[in-house]
Inverse folding.
């Protein structure tokens, strides 16, 4: 027996949505149909965040309480209007990833049970030179959104001194993301260096609040600035991405004025569409100017400290320090 379905007209496309009444978000009774309708309601903003980017899909065919599928490769069977782009992983392997070129692609992916969208920080025209610097402000145990907010404002201060505009959003959890459009002149290694330099400067200004320590045992009750989100094949949820949690929170773009008293619990699949209808995309200007990271790279060189560890799934990188947590390293024989 064929699965029930409905169809949505999305631009010039017709997107079929199967099993539209299947519950994906049990805490609120949110359905697959509601997920698709959400993405269509914020389509302009969601497309701006994903446009022309290789995108990984975090799929939950049985809803958010079921097993997650983190899909990096585009489905082999797909409509001919769903484009792909070849990407290269740190291992050297390649894959064809979804390339988001129109709103119908987002709706198509939502029908595949995609809840979170995770775009690369590059465009399809040049997959080796990022056009976005990402600052991921991640609360650690003992800290929360209030501490992340204070670190975000310290970051905003540093960026402003450099003449750089950062666009802030909730992560959809307790954290905060800041995105900066940059000139696609530098490779992943250099952009990561810029992220390290920025994170170290913020850490120096609020050392009791922020940390760049990669090893959890060294972080304490401080907010971690995850510089490694600028490495190749590291992604964060895009602006307007729903997060795979029972109450369907949304990674929501804010203005800096709004951040001062924002509560991330106010932004979810049912509240953000009305906000978008009223305000539009508050990050609409994000593509208006691309910034240089030269000053940050100069700071990285002047700092004189060595590189920082990469994630464990990466091959050993040139200039990277020993990849072992400090408590174990202290017991290593000379």
């Amino acid at each position: 027996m064929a699965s029930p379905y409905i169809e949505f007209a999305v631009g010039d496309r017709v997107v079929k949505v199967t099993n539209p009444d299947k519950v994906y978000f049990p805490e609120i009774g949110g359905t697959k149909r509601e997920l698709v309708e959400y993405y269509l309601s914020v389509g302009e903003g969601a497309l701006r965040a994903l446009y022309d980017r290789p995108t990984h899909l975090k799929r939950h065919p049985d809803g958010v309480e079921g097993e997650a599928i983190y899909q990096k490769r585009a489905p082999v069977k797909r409509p001919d209007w769903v484009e792909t782009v070849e990407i290269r992983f740190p291992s050297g392997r390649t894959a064809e990833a979804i390339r988001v070129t129109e709103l119908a692609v987002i709706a198509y992916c939502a029908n595949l049970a995609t809840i979170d969208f995770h775009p690369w920080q590059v465009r399809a025209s040049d997959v080796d030179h990022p056009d976005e610097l990402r600052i991921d402000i991640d609360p650690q145990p003992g800290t929360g959104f209030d501490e992340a907010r204070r670190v975000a404002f310290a970051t905003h201060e540093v960026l402003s001194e450099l003449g750089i505009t950062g666009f802030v959003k909730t992560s959809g959890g307790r954290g905060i993301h800041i995105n900066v459009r940059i000139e696609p002149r530098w490779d992943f290694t250099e952009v990561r260096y810029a992220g390290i330099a920025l994170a170290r400067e913020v850490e120096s200004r609020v050392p009791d609040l922020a940390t760049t320590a990669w090893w959890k045992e060294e972080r304490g009750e401080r907010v971690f600035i995850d510089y490694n989100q600028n490495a190749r094949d590291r992604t964060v949820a895009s602006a307007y991405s729903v997060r795979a949690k029972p109450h369907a929170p949304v990674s929501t773009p804010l203005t800096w004025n709004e951040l001062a008293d924002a509560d991330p619990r106010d932004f979810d699949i049912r509240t953000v569409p009305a906000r978008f209808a009223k305000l539009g995309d508050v990050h609409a200007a994000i593509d208006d100017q691309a910034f240089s990271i030269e000053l940050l790279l100069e700071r990285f060189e002047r700092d004189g400290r060595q590189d920082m560890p990469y994630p464990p799934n990466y091959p050993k990188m040139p200039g990277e320090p020993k990849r072992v947590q400090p408590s174990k390293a202290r017991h290593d024989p000379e």
